[in-house]
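dude i think i finally got it to work??
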Amino acid sequence: MDGEHSALSGVERERERLPPIYNSSPPAGLGRGAKQPFPSLGTFISTLSQRRDMAGRGLAGGIMGNLTGNHGLRHGRELPPICSNVRQKHRLSIDTLPPEVKAPFPSDPIIPLRTKTTKEFQEDMERALQSGDWREVREFYLTTFDSFIEINAAFKREANGLFNTIEDSGVNTKFVNAVYDALLNTPQDIQKSVLKGIINSLLREWKGPRTKDDLRAYFILVQNPQYSSTSTYVIYAHLLRQIAALSEADHHFLVHWFKKLSARRFRQLVERLLQFISTRLFPAEPDEFPPLSKCAWWIPSATKVLSLFNAANSVSSPPIMSFTDFYNITLEHIDFMEDYRTWQNYGNSNRFSFCQFPFILSTVVKKAIIQKDSEQQMISQARQSLVSKVSRRQRVDMNLLFLNIKVRRAQLLSDSLDELTRKRCDLKKKLRVTFVGEAGLDMGGLTKEWFLLLVRQIFHTDYGMFTYMKDSRCHWFSSWKCDNYSEFQLVGTLMGLAVYNSIALDIHFPLYCYRKLLTPPTVPCDQNALVGMANATLDDLQQIMPELAHGLGELLSYEGNVEEDFYLTFQVFQEEMGAVKSYNLKPGGDKIPVTKQNRKEYVQLYVDFLLNKSIYKQFAAFYHGFHSVCASDALMLLRPEEVEMLVCGSPELDMSALQKAAQYEGYSKTDATVRCFWDVVLAFPLELQKKLLHFATGSDRVPVGGMADFNFKIAKIDVPTDWLPISHTCFNQICLPPYRTRKELKQKLTIAISNAEGFGLE
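look at this
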């Protein structure tokens, strides 16, 4: 301890002779002063490194080189080793949390006793603001952030308490919040001293195994609001790197501590990390940060720490934030296909890619990846067909390049099933639909109409494939048994083709259906492997059969005699084709009474039977139909909610957004006819707005990218005003005669959009 004290004292003496981190003017975000560059952190660290090397103290080892970014990298985007005795983790995903690891930790050092309370600190701040005497506040900040030990001394509820559980960090959260809320209102020299203290703490704590007090210090330091300023990003990056390099067991603790933060502060930390990644990718000034080649670990470290917050959000019930709040829209402007290929080639290895952390990629990026992946598969499929024809010296027909579907409106379902079954080898080609007897060339509009009509017919209650649940307003698979489940495969294929060809379908499945569709996300090689058997809970049943779920919930909470009052056995009854059939939930279930002791098992087996086992063959056919088209690694990037968005688009119509994105041909947006058009459309009820969208685009759903993705166009046609509007669904275009009055336009438009199905040439 004497030697250590002597060494630390040497560091203190050195600190007195170091150049200042900032110029005299305060940096942006730390006060009211103008923004200043951050050129002297490198100077500070370089000087510290040189002087320590000259003095032979060896306290920082190879850390200074790391801080200045000179550490040798095996690859430009690889997270470099931190130091020789810290194990590097190869697994970068935090999605699946491990069980709490009860490994022995080094004993914590004795923490000095600090007695300042939140109230006392706030009183000190008030006195300083009124008198201008900041000595006491300055001393507090200088001491508190000087080391990990001092951070624990200030903010740990009991200085030498253990607090070794995931449930309680042992941190006085109220005090931490008060100290950080006050920090940006202090003079610049105090703010600089905090940053200097953090630098020294990070340098001193770089090596060795982590204690719980170290984790507490990281937990507290990452909440510092100073990191919102780009001038502190170098320090912030090194803090993030140390947190990212912690063991999986340590990450497990941090995840559970993070989820205890208030929703507001949790969101602030997530937004700060997202901003850090965006600014590092696209800095405002080219020389604002060190060269990317010297700090390639910045983005991987920040993304991994962000994944801890995502994990904390996922294990919270309900989630603290929407999963969409973790999207970084800046990534829509990078070469995400290169990132996707890196991920395909290297997986979750040390070669960083954003696809390793799919929560950060927006649905727009994931849709684009799937589309480009689909296009490549389409081109490959078409090329193979072409080469095959040429090699056999056969005449090349350009129809070979397409999946050509020819159907009769009167026999739509049977014709579609026959065509898709017969042409299953062509499913990955570009889809082109022809309605027999109709003079329509498919440039996209007929395909949309085919999907719309087919979905409408398949999901009709009279057809019996799906049951409409009135309470939850969604469809679910009928449990009737049959010899052939090919029609369920057709529905799956149809959904796959919709995603593959970027068509939004008006389908109302519960979210659990999409979770089943991703279980597993890629088809198993073993043909006998089970598919779609997602873990089913009472909450999942609530989405589909809320009344039954409520009844089962009451069974679980019943205080009386379950066996005598409910008189249930491990057996269920279902009506199939007018007859009631019984099924045992477990062997001999009809003879096993449901009791207070086994009711949880009964409910679990009942829910699993309803959502998995009773419809297994139907859903397996549906699953294989979908994956016969969408067999892509990109599906592993998706959440169930995102699959639903890709299949169905969004039902939320924003006609004002469509108006802003609209293009004009022959008209301008100030013309009287155009102004009348938007007045009428914005005043339409939702049902007519949907009909207008269907009339103009062939679908009443909004694509993932929003209304702007429609490329909606209003064109002028020089015809008499007694004509109705005309649409070209292939091009998302509506053609308007030059109507003179609002009343005339509304009447003609309403007639047109209400009678917009088919070409009428049968």
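Residues 1-97, 99-105 have pLDDT under 50 and may be disordered.
im so relieved honestly
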